[in-house]
From TrEMBL:
CDD domains on file: yflN-like_MBL-fold
Domain (Metallo-beta-lactamase): residue spans on this chain: 38-250
Official protein name in the record: MBL fold metallo-hydrolase
Superkingdom of origin: Bacteria
Species of origin: Teichococcus globiformis
Alphabetical list of Gene3D superfamilies matching this protein: Ribonuclease Z/Hydroxyacylglutathione hydrolase-like
Span list, region Disordered: 1-23
Amino acid composition bias (Basic and acidic residues), ranges on this chain: 1-13
Length: 297
């Protein structure tokens, strides 16, 4: 596997500045996240903002519906439904309870147009690359679900102008590589970044590291990344933002100068620090342009 970039203790984002220690990690008055075993979901919106006054980012692993619903109820109110669910991408660990929550809350789901085939039933994700090594998660990756969801009329495309529905002040950025339609969410006003899996802060290929979440900056989870040239470009794009706070799809939220320094180091040396030594997608990326990213389910 690629070399790691350790993140010092001072890089950890200050958490719970605006609320109690209720299992939700508060990063700003209107930005919080919850850790669901090995993956994160984020909440955009002020506490107690009520019904349709907030949005959920991603939808966790299968079996986490109750945890997400309870966290949302504690933060926004027991009857408060989101205005929408926004997806960074559609891998199984980010849409595990998406259909159930979208149905229960009666909400639209927004994703990048290139992610649409994985969410309308028409294409599976490309096969994983367990040869990347690094631990049990990589070895088990051929067992992970790849078949698409079919969200039907609930599925909507993110606006072409880059705005983020129901989240004033936020924009979406196309950050492909891990998936062809992967996006990250950015708020310039306070330089807050929801990175999805474009970069992560734990070694996701290792089951132990994914659970322990020792802070380290990494490129995207290698076993599911299908275009490493695009992944490198996405990491460089995020580094230029100079984020103050970043929550990724995996690992703890990070902040401050140490985060920015690590992002610059990763961007400058991505081929050494971000890429595995072996992967089928280094020489033969799966891309939307030639259809290789969309095998039949």
């Amino acid at each position: 596997m690629a070399d790691r970039i350790p993140l010092p203790e001072e890089a950890r984002a200050p958490e719970n500045p605006a609320g109690p220690d209720d299992g939700i990690h508060h990063l700003a008055p209107d930005l919080a996240y919850a850790r669901l075993m090995i993956v994160n979901v984020a909440f955009l919106g002020l506490p107690d903002s009520g019904d349709r006054g907030w949005v959920l980012v991603d939808a966790g692993l299968p079996g986490t519906k109750g945890t997400i619903r309870e966290a949302a109820a504690r933060r926004f109110g027991s009857t408060a439904r989101p205005a929408a669910i926004l997806l960074t991408h559609g891998h199984f660990d980010h849409v595990g309870v998406l259909e159930d929550l979208a149905e229960e809350w009666d909400v639209p789901v927004y994703a990048h147009p290139l992610e649409k085939p994985y969410l309308d039933g028409s294409a599976a994700y490309p096969p994983p690359a367990p040869e990347v090594g690094g631990g049990l998660m990589a070895r088990l990756s051929p067992l992970f679900p790849r078949k698409p969801l079919d969200l039907g009329a609930r599925l909507h495309m993110l606006p072409q102008d880059g705005t983020l529905p129901f989240a004033p002040g936020w924009r979406w950025l196309h950050t492909p590589g891990h998936s062809v339609g992967h996006v990250s969410f950015w708020r310039e006003a306070d330089r807050s970044l929801v990175a999805g899996d474009a970069v992560v802060t734990t070694r996701q290929e290792s089951a132990y590291a994914a659970v322990a979440q020792t802070p380290e900056l990494h490129g995207p989870p290698a076993y599911f990344t299908v275009d490493w040239e695009a992944a490198a470009q996405s990491a460089r794009q995020l580094s230029t933002l100079e984020p103050e706070t970043m929550v990724a799809g995996h690992g703890r939220a990070m902040a401050g100068p140490a985060l920015r320094s690590a992002l610059h180091e990763l961007a400058a040396n991505f081929e050494r620090l971000g890429m595995p030594e072996r992967t089928r997608y280094a020489e033969a990326p799966a891309r939307a342009e030639d259809g290789s990213a969309y095998p039949k389910p």
